Amino acid sequence: MPKISYVNGSFLNHENAYIHIDDRGYQFADGVYEVVLAKNNILIDWDLHCARLRRSLSEMRISYAFDDNSLLATVRELIDKNSLDDASIYIQITRGVAPRAHNFPKGNVTPSVVMTAAAPVFPTNLEYKNGVSVITMPDIRWKMRHIKTISLLPNILAKQLASEQNAAEAVLIEDSGLITEASSSNFFIFDRSGVLRTHPLNNLILWGITMHGVLKVARRAGFKVEESAFTLSELMESRGSFLSSTTKHILPVTKVNGVQIGGGEVCHEIQELMKLYKNYVEKQLS
């Protein structure tokens, strides 16, 4: 069965799903995106993804109004056309097609909307059980990281360097010495006092949807939670750390720059949080 994608109102065979060469997403990375997980044809945290997509569009001053339910119907049709129950949905909206110029195009330009669906790829059971390795590197990204823009070159370079060093992720560090997040994940630690910490929700990180769920279930369960940045030294001395994202959920980290942390094992706090987050997702399926 051929893969089906969505381009500007039409469902097309993936190999024929093209955009115009003058699309500003192609020319300038002038666009935003979302990745949404579907399980049993139910979109996890759909309302939160729509809210973030709407916020990103507003920050980029891209005039594209959408109705959550109508967009959901299109996404579900895309999933159905690809005969998927579980899917990773990629949604991209750019400013549209216009003659190449750095300033916004004049007149009425229709934004371009594309969507693809694929079977989700998760970490292995062994990685969830034993944790993964990460490296650290300087955070060289722009200062508006709360916008989920398609301009991802620094993230790509960081992820590639991690791959070349057989690491699952690159954890990014500001010039101040504070850790922000990873190349395609948010990042948490349980510090030496047992406090769950992650970077504050400001312009220096992307406000992850999974991150939101993790903080929510942690607070409900009575964990002490602080949205406060931490240093590499604090990471190395922590009880444990983990990555979070739509296609990772909670993924423990047990080695940083080749050095074991937390005794090289997944601490009981992270194990408990993984169970709580799994229940959070499963409740949306019932």
Quick summary of this structure?
Helices cover 30% and strands 27% of the residues.
What's the arrangement of secondary structure elements?
Layout: E1 4-7, E2 10-13, H1 24-28, E3 31-39, E4 42-43, H2 46-60, H3 68-81, E5 87-94, E6 112-118, H4 125-130, E7 132-138, H5 153-164, E8 169-173, E9 179-182, E10 186-190, E11 196-198, H6 209-220, E12 225-227, H7 232-236, E13 240-245, E14 249-256, E15 259-260, H8 268-285
Helix pairs in contact: 6-8
Q: Using the CA coordinates, give the radius of gyration.
A: 20 Å
Q: Beta-strand percentage? A: 25-35%
Low-pLDDT parts are none
Average pLDDT? 97
Described by its quaternary structure, the protein is single chain
Q: What is the strand tally?
A: 15
Number of domains: 2
Q: Indicate the CATH topology of the largest domain.
A: D-amino Acid Aminotransferase, Chain A, domain 2
| Biggest sheet architecture | 9 strands, mixed
Using the coordinates above, name the CATH class of the largest domain.
Alpha Beta
* Global structural class: alpha+beta
Describe the structure.
- It is a single chain.
- With 286 residues, the protein is of the alpha+beta class.
- The protein has two domains: 115 residues, Aminotransferase class 4, branched-chain amino acid transferase, N-terminal domain (D-amino Acid Aminotransferase, Chain A, domain 1, 2-Layer Sandwich); 161 residues, D-amino Acid Aminotransferase, subunit A, domain 2 (D-amino Acid Aminotransferase, Chain A, domain 2).
- 30% of the residues lie in helices and 27% in strands.
- The strands form two sheets. Strands 7, 8, 9, 10, 11, 12, 13, 14 and 15 form a nine-stranded mixed β-sheet that branches. A six-stranded antiparallel β-sheet has the order 2-1-6-5-3-4.
